[in-house]
Amino acid sequence: MTYVRRGRWIMAAAGAAALLTATTACGPLAGVADGGGKHPFTVAFGGDVHFEGDLRARLDADPKTVFGPVGRQLSGADLAIVNLETAVTTGGTPAPKQFTFRAPPTAFTALRAAGVDVATMANNHGMDYGATGLRDSLTAARQAGFPVVGIGANAAAAYRPYLTTVNGTKVAIIGATQVLDDELATAWTATDTQPGLASAKDEVRLDRAVRQAQEANDIVIVDLHWGQELNSCPTDAQQRLADHLLQSGADAIIGSHAHVVLAGGYYKHGYVDYGLGNFLFYNANGRTAQSGVLTLTFDAAAKRSTVTKAVWAPARLENGVARPLTGPAAQEAQTSWLGLRRCAGLTASPTS
To answer: How far is CA 86 from the centre of its chain?
Structure first.
């Protein structure tokens, strides 16, 4: 039995070939399994993405080429996930804050062309253009047939995972943010009656979402917006939340927000990456230009950890776009990345 083209599409070649769709746009529908056992699969992760400055001009010129060659690393995995740190709207009113980001609906065209399958919009820019911007974002995602998590018309929708089946394995992806401006947190947090974002500050609700996802699926991935800007070490709040969510059933917790790269590695039985850095970001330079693609191999049948392999492919932002590194530059960046584990309490292999 062979499989091609990612989590959205599964090709089963057993006698007559059949092409089966595995997911639906922006909604939780389990994908199509192959009828056999569970097989390992890969998920690629990128960090913060927006389309500001020169990136907007590139988006307008040709949305299918904005990400450049790094898209090949994303599309090479069975699934690919990024943090979409912008409202997708041409309307709305900017929030009263220093930086507000928005992009046209062609942002989803760019993501899909780069091989991205799912985006989390749970971050401190997801509602930069208010409730109107939120509605426009959800409409644009639905019309594009592009799955987004961490945002919704109410809390049930915002905390709802994206579900798919890859190589016979049922996968749930949840998005939430631990970072919200104090003066906007109440208005931006999704409730039973209010649209908004899935807040990781409501640990009870996030915990319930993870536990419910774990009960119904083989693999649970949580993509979090968390940490402290420009701090290469995780905060106490990050470490506590990671420990809690792993106990609740998460297999991997991957994050962004600090605009610099943080450590990735094993914590007990699960895999945690505290910060992937910028990925498509207009004003990156120096430390904030350090980037990369994290690719995890999952195996639901594995005994010690369902994450059986982790590969960090370093990149550097040039004119806002992540460019994969090679040769000595890649080796130096890899060594630096491994060294970040010293302040993160992470290991190279599972410990339980």
So the answer is: 14
Confidence band of 36 (pLDDT split at 50, 70, 90) = low
How far is it, in rounded angstroms, from Cα 45 to Cα 223? Answer: 9
pLDDT digits (tens, 9 = 90+) for 66-118: 999 999 999 999 999 999 999 999 999 999 999 999 999 999 999 999 999 99
* Average pLDDT over every residue of 191-218: 97
| 37 band by pLDDT with thresholds 50, 70 and 90 | confident
Contacts 24+ apart (CB under 8 A), 307-314: 307/251, 307/252, 307/266, 307/270, 307/271, 307/350, 308/40, 310/264, 310/265, 310/271, 312/264, 312/337, 313/73, 314/290
CA pair distance 335, 217, nearest whole angstrom: 35
Asked if residue 174 has pLDDT above 60, the reply is yes
Look at the chain and count its residues: 352
What is the rounded distance in angstroms from the CA atom of residue 87 to the CA atom of residue 205?
Answer: 24
Question: Which one, of 219, 95, 103, 225, lies nearest residue 158 by Cα?
Answer: 225
For residues 226-251, give the mean pLDDT. 98
**In 3D, which of 320, 307, 315 has the Cα closest to residue 273?**
307
Tell me the C-alpha distance between 193 and 66, whole Å.
Answer: 37
Closest CA to 275 of 40, 31, 47: 47
What are 74-77's contacts with CB under 8 Å, separation 24+?
74/44, 74/46, 74/114, 74/115, 74/116, 74/293, 75/6, 75/114, 75/115, 76/42, 76/44, 76/115, 76/295, 77/6, 77/42, 77/43, 77/44, 77/115, 77/295
